[in-house]
Amino acid sequence: MWRLLEPLRPEDREAFLALTHRRTFARDEVLCHEGDPADSLHLVERGHLAVRGTLPSGAAATFTVLSPGDYFGELALMRTDRRRTATVTALEESQTLAVAGTAFNRLCQNNPDIERLLSTLLADRIDLLSRRLLETLYETLDRRVHRRLLDLADAYGGSDGAVTIPLSQAQLADLVGATRPPVNQVLKRLADRNVVRLGRSRIEVLDRAELRRRST
Prior knowledge:
Layout: H1 10-17, E1 21-25, E2 30-32, E3 40-46, E4 49-54, E5 60-66, E6 71-72, H2 74-78, E7 87-90, E8 94-100, H3 101-110, H4 112-138, H5 141-156, E9 163-165, H6 169-176, H7 180-192, E10 196-199, E11 202-205, H8 208-215
Antiparallel strand pairs: 1-8, 2-7, 3-6, 3-8, 4-5, 4-7, 9-11, 10-11
Protein name: Crp/Fnr family transcriptional regulator
Keywords: DNA-binding, Transcription, Transcription regulation
InterPro entries: cNMP-bd_CS, cNMP-bd_dom, cNMP-bd_dom_sf, Env_Response_Regulators, HTH_CRP, RmlC-like_jellyroll, WH-like_DNA-bd_sf, WH_DNA-bd_sf
């Protein structure tokens, strides 16, 4: 269930989903670029997507990883310039349900609860970005890596068992806000303690409980 659609009555939800069309994306395919005209909202149905932002200097960072049940594109549709605010890339073969901006606007007009929920969700996203910024400024790199690994393990696994995260160390470093060499050192220390197992373009989390202990 997409949280965005929770306020709708079942029949309204079904009517809205009937307006969507399914889109499939290959691994590393860009769904949209920052600054592109925005014409649709996407509900993530399958796979995982990286959301990245770029500064005029060319510096870039990954804000978050979207999982099934998440969505993106609503902010761009609400902006006056209707431009994408980030670049979204498929981390693996992924699938979304896309709905045209006009249908999304009608949904908001006919369901005031949606606009109230959007305000809450946008506030949550701002709070998340603010906490990530504070972590980057004041937390150790080790703790930041532990927390992002926990986030990713929850996104890819759900239960407390071992879970494979199909990301490279460079991609994790981008998400943490650091460069690959120091992140690699943190991962090696975790691997030496059998908390994770490292592979080619993947990180297997073996002990989530230990990661939680180290992240606090």
